[in-house]
Amino acid sequence: SQIRNLDDLLHSRLKFGVHDTVFNKYYFSTATEPVRKAIYEKKVAPPGTVPRFMSMEEGVKKMRKGLFAFHMETGVGYKFVGKYFNEGEKCGLQEIQYLQVIDPWLAVRKHTPYKEMFKIGMKRIQEHGLQSRENWLLYEKRPKCSGRESNFVSVSMVDCYPALLILTYGTILSLMLLACEFLYLKRQ
């Protein structure tokens, strides 16, 4: 696919939908970066239309139909992708990071003696991979793409006609050669 970043997404012919949450409504409507703001104004909530916020199930179903980009939390969204998409369709999915949010930290009172201890503890959790491990266990993983070979295409006799023709001519030719060999051997 030619869509690799938000600018490509903005200038594509894909329609755009967003999972209907308070969080998403706030971040999309208050975007200040030019590309993100343009995506909201042109794709999500064009003037004179109802903003395209929808349930996750509805958005994933529209994605499956094609030419539709849907913003969702991947951890929950992959469950619906696994439910509604065929194996071959999962291979065509592509992700683009939209929100630039940082991991949450603890809020502590100013000048508390525990501030440094919390800071070191949170950094160690990040460094040792405990946060990543918990996210990996908690959220649904991206559905495995088992390849394009899982798509079956029915083939009719018309599609196989050239192969059947070659097989038939080959069989007739081999039977004729067999008959010639028998005749040759009987005459000797």
Defining key terms:
188 residues, mainly alpha, 2 domains
SSE order, one letter for each helix or strand: HEHHEHEHHHHH
In percent, how much strand structure appears in the residues? 5-15%
Largest sheet: 3 strands, parallel
Task: Report the helical percentage.
Answer: 40-55%
Going across the major beta sheet, what is the strand order? 2-1-3
Q: How many independent structural domains?
A: 2
Secondary structure tally: strands:
3
Helix and strand arrangement:
Blueprint: H1 6-10, E1 15-19, H2 22-29, H3 34-44, E2 53-54, H4 56-65, E3 68-71, H5 74-84, H6 87-90, H7 115-127, H8 130-138, H9 157-187
Parallel strand pairs: 1-2, 1-3
Helix pairs in contact: 4-5
Folded structure, characterized:
This is Ionotropic receptor 75q.2b. Keywords: Membrane, Receptor, Transmembrane, Transmembrane helix. There is one protein chain. With 188 residues, this protein is mainly alpha-helical. The protein has two domains: 145 residues, no CATH class; 36 residues. 54% of the residues lie in helices and 6% in strands. It is built from nine helices and three strands; from the N terminus they run H-E-H-H-E-H-E-H-H-H-H-H. A three-stranded parallel beta sheet has the order 2-1-3, covered by helices on one side. The model has no long low-confidence stretch (mean pLDDT 88).
